[in-house]
């Protein structure tokens, strides 16, 4: 059957039979509570104005879709295996739906509807150990009838026995294969496969009559006499025109994903089928857990591959995406002797997120000097770190003489206030207005320049952060003064919050592993609190920033009532311990202001992690 895009599903569903039990829409007793709407759960779902249909809840990351809207979940419908977003209020327990709709199902003439119910029922009942290969709908109805008199609800046992929802297997084999088909149905993948199938160069490579490493671009499959670039992962080349766009050919499709938790690489089906694993391609698609060619320790995957991985691919990928930054080995000349404890100067220190991040990594900090003027931020820092932080006051008062007294400095960090740089602020003053806060960026530059000149033969690592939503002219001005381009990193890779920020730094780039965490993971347990969104939008100092989506909805439901995030939950989202800002009887508004101005602890930790090559740290750190 031809797949129906989610955007066209409504008009398609209108052709289906209207359900006879209209009152069902108003019945709350059959509603599947949001706390049970987990990935891999088999349900009845409903688009407004249409009939109930069997589906499985899926993760947006597994179907190459965007994050669902607030209050919505992605589902894959049984029968036609298309995808839609469904409001959390429109889910029903699967066992109740079967009983409720039995007569309607028996009299329905829609084959796709009946086929979908049968497939969903077989997946559902298999969780209870049933052998369902030869089942028909009569077997389904009989099984549910036999279970009606049980003291324990079938659906409650479904929750306990949901084998799909674990680290390795999220979905039934049917849904897993349909998700893979959905992801691989892109036009780019089809074009790529067609090119590989009909490329004479590919046959020449197979027969070893030409050298793939020197003159062939793996993207456009053309011979090229111009400048060629080494592929960072494999012993192949890319031409100038194809340099920056699967981990092999660089097209944008996400098709087959490596299941190694430390690997984020994906491979288009065409490259996997014709270049990487021509003899084992179909077996790979059937595997529940698959390690890619760069992660696998098995020689079977590479034995028939037309291309071979580089031994130094990690170094190549670091240099390829480095923003004018030296490698880890470049700085070793400064640290030939025994490692030492790190000395840090933090400008615009806030609540000492930098120190917390260093402690998170296990660094032994010899001295931590901080410049901050907000008394609320300083009291939070004092409560947690006391005399471990030497306070220098206003950044504008840090003179050359003061710097001489605290040198040498190993690490300079800071992020000047962003309110006069952000596009969100229509009244922003920019970088040069003496009455604005943007001009404080040049205080960072001044202090950085002094330290670099007077640092007593000590190398200086530095990091500067600011908002990503700034006009391009501001970014260029900062680039010019700091001498490099920034990295754009979204803290959503490490936390349940979207927080894109620019980071200018000379710290060597590390290959960091994203830490997948959704909002539900940080909500206070035992309080019946359930997230209505996967990741919240950027939190600022404004209370309204906690509202989500165009309708400005609260992101949590508690006891069937919408609720805002609690301050302790907000602290955990940023990576702080709970109650970190709960000092001096500060109000919730003041605490959010302090948190909203802070860095994400785990993001800063990942950026600074490469410094472990040079300074003393506790092996028990993260």
Short note summarizing the structure:
With 622 residues, the protein is an alpha+beta fold. The chain is built from 21 helices and 19 strands.
What's the layout of helices and strands?
Elements (H helix, E strand, L loop, with lengths): L8 H5 L28 E4 L7 E6 L13 E6 L5 E5 L3 E3 H7 L1 H6 L3 H16 L10 H10 L7 H7 L12 H12 L2 H11 L2 H7 L21 E3 L6 E3 L16 E2 L8 E2 L1 H8 L4 H6 L13 H4 L9 H8 L21 E6 L5 H9 L3 E7 L3 H11 L3 E3 L8 H7 L4 E4 L26 H14 L6 E7 L4 H11 L4 E4 L9 E6 L23 E3 L24 E3 L2 E3 L3 H8 L13 H9 L4 H8 L14
Parallel strand pairs: 10-11, 10-13, 11-12, 13-14
Antiparallel strand pairs: 1-2, 1-5, 2-3, 3-4, 6-7, 8-9, 14-16, 15-16, 17-18, 18-19
Main beta-sheet strand count, sense and barrel state: 7 strands, mixed
Judging from the principal axes of the Cα atoms, what is the shape? globular
Cα distance, first to last residue? 50 Å
- Average the pLDDT over all residues and give the rounded result: 83
Determine the strand fraction and express it as a percent band.
5-15%
Q: Going across the major beta sheet, what is the strand order?
A: 12-11-10-13-14-16-15
Helix content: 25-40%
Low-pLDDT stretches are 1-27
Number of strands: 19
Radius of gyration: 28 Å
Class from helix and strand fractions: alpha+beta
**How many separate helices?**
21
């Amino acid at each position: 059957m031809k797949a129906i895009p989610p955007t066209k599903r409504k008009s398609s569903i209108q052709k289906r039979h209207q359900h006879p039990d209209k009152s069902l829409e108003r019945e709350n007793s059959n509603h599947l509570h949001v706390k049970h709407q987990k990935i891999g759960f088999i349900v009845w779902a409903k688009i407004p104005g249409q009939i109930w249909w069997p589906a499985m809840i899926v993760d947006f990351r597994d179907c190459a879709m965007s994050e669902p809207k607030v209050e919505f979940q992605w589902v894959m419908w049984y029968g036609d295996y298309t995808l839609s977003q469904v409001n959390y209020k429109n889910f029903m327990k699967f066992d109740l739906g079967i009983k409720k709709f039995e007569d309607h199902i028996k009299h329905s003439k829609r084959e796709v509807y009946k086929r979908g119910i049968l497939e969903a029922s077989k997946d559902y009942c298999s969780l209870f150990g049933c052998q369902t290969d030869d089942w028909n709908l009569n077997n389904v109805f009989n099984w549910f009838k036999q279970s009606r008199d049980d003291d324990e609800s079938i659906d409650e046992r479904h929750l306990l026995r949901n084998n799909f929802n674990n680290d390795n297997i999220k979905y039934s084999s049917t849904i897993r294969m349909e998700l893979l088909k959905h992801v691989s149905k892109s036009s780019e993948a089809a074009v790529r496969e067609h090119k590989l199938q009909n490329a004479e160069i590919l046959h020449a490579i197979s027969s070893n009559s030409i050298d793939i490493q020197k003159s062939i671009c793996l993207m456009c499959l053309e011979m090229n006499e111009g400048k060629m670039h080494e592929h960072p992962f494999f012993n192949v080349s890319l031409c100038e025109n194809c340099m920056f766009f699967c981990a092999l050919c660089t097209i944008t499709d996400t098709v087959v994903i490596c299941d190694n938790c430390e690997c984020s690489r994906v491979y288009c089906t065409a490259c996997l089928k014709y270049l990487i694993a021509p003899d084992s391609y179909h077996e790979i698609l059937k595997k529940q857990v698959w390690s890619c060619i760069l992660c696998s320790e098995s020689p079977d995957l590479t034995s028939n591959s037309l291309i071979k991985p580089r031994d130094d691919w990690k170094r190549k990928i670091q240099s390829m995406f480095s923003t004018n930054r030296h490698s880890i080995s470049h700085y070793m000349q400064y640290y030939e002797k025994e490692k030492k404890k790190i000395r840090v100067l933090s400008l615009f220190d806030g609540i000492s997120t930098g120190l917390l991040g260093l402690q998170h990594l296990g660094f032994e900090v010899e001295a931590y000097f901080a410049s901050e003027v907000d008394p609320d931020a300083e009291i939070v820092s004092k409560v947690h770190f006391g005399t471990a932080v030497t306070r220098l006051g206003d950044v504008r008062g840090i003179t050359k003489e003061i710097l001489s007294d605290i040198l040498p400095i190993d690490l300079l960090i800071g992020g000047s206030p962003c309110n006069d740089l952000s596009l969100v602020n229509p009244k922003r003053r920019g970088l040069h207005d003496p009455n604005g806060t943007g001009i404080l960026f040049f205080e960072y530059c001044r202090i950085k320049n002094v330290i670099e000149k007077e640092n007593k033969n000590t190398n200086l690592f530095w990091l500067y952060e600011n908002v990503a939503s700034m006009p391009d002219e501001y970014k260029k001005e900062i680039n010019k003064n700091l001498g490099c381009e920034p990295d754009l990193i979204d803290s959503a890779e490490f936390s349940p919050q979207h927080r894109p920020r620019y980071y200018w730094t000379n710290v060597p780039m590390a290959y960091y592993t994203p830490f997948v965490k959704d909002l539900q993971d940080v909500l206070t347990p035992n309080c019946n609190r359930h997230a209505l969104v996967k990741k919240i939008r950027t939190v600022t100092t404004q209370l309204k920033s906690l509202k989500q989506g165009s309708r400005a909805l609260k992101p949590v439901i508690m006891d069937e009532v919408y609720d805002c995030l609690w301050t302790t939950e907000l602290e955990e989202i940023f990576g702080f311990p709970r109650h970190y800002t709960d000092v001096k009887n500060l109000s919730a508004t003041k605490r959010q202001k302090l948190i909203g101005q802070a860095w994400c602890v785990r993001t800063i930790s990942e950026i600074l992690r490469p410094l472990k090559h040079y300074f003393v740290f506790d092996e028990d750190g993260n």
